Amino acid sequence: MVPPTTAIADVLQLRGLTGWLSPPLRPLHRSPGLLGRALTVRLAPGPGENGLAPLRSVMDECLEGRVIVVAGAQTAAGAVWDEILTRAALARGACGLLVEGGVRDVNAYRDLGLPVWALYEATAGPGPDVHVAAVGGAVEIAGVTVDESTTIVMDGAGVVALPSTDVFADSYMYADAEENVVTALREGATLAEASRYKEDILTKLRRPL
User: Fold this and answer.
1) 24 touches 158 (CB < 8 A)
2) Predicted TM-score of the model (pTM)
3) Which residue would you say has higher pLDDT here, 147 or 199?
4) Measured between alpha carbons, how far is 90 from 152 in angstroms, rounded to an integer?
């Protein structure tokens, strides 16, 4: 079980860090909490030498436990991901997809169970004026750097990219504290009374590391 993305994001924020990718990415198919290692693909404008063929080739590799991260896809005229790629990726073990651009065939993600976050839905395909600039290596989405050592956490509430899982321990404590606040409110406490359950963890996380 992984910590909630909301807790991870709040802990990062309290530490003066970033890492959340939602927004700008939005859910096309949400999932329970999962953790995977990023596999990055960077797209660029223009037809290039091989177009999107290298992206399709990635679907024939072992993708066990990987979250495919497609950056720069907003340069395409339409969707760079569809049901065909979804089926191929799942068959090779992929556990999630992030697309900085358009996707289509959203019902297939839901039916097949692939968690997908993207910028938008599109009806048409990608068109000829986009190509794969690199498979692997560092990409940037919303100011957050993602490479193949990055851990991606996805759940129904968001997506976070992490250089390590060191933040998990504090995120679990933060999530527990928030649940204690909710429980106290259910039992009739005022917000001021219930908020005391978060005071210790907030004080701890605001201290310089």
Assistant:
1) no
2) 0.91
3) 147
4) 17
- Report residue 26 as tokens: 């939005």
Q: DSSP readout, 16-46?
A: T---B-TTT-EEEE--S-EEEEEEEEEEEES
The DSSP annotation for 116-183 comes to: EEEEEE-SS---SSEEEEEESS-EEETTEEE-TT-EEEEETTEEEEES-STTHHHHHHHHHHHHHHHH
The answer to whether the CB of 67 falls within 8 A of the CB of 96 is: yes
Q: Which of 103, 198, 94 minimizes the C-alpha distance to 154? A: 94
The tens digit of pLDDT for each residue in 52-90 reads 999 999 999 999 999 999 999 999 999 999 999 999 999
| Residue keyed to tokens 């063929």 | 53
Backbone φ and ψ for 174, nearest 5 degrees, come out as: -65, -45
- Rounded mean pLDDT, 116-145: 96
Q: Residue 16 carries which side chain, given as an amino acid letter?
A: G
Tens-place pLDDT, residues 192-206 = 999 898 988 888 887
- Which residues pair with residue 29 across a beta bridge? 116
**The pair of three-digit structure tokens given for residue 102, joined into one six-digit string:** 């358009």
CA-CA distances (angstroms) from residue 170 to 34, 90, 160, 181, 205?
18, 32, 15, 17, 8
Residue identified by tokens 């066990």 is 64
Task: Examine the pLDDT at 207 and tell me if it is beyond 80.
Answer: no
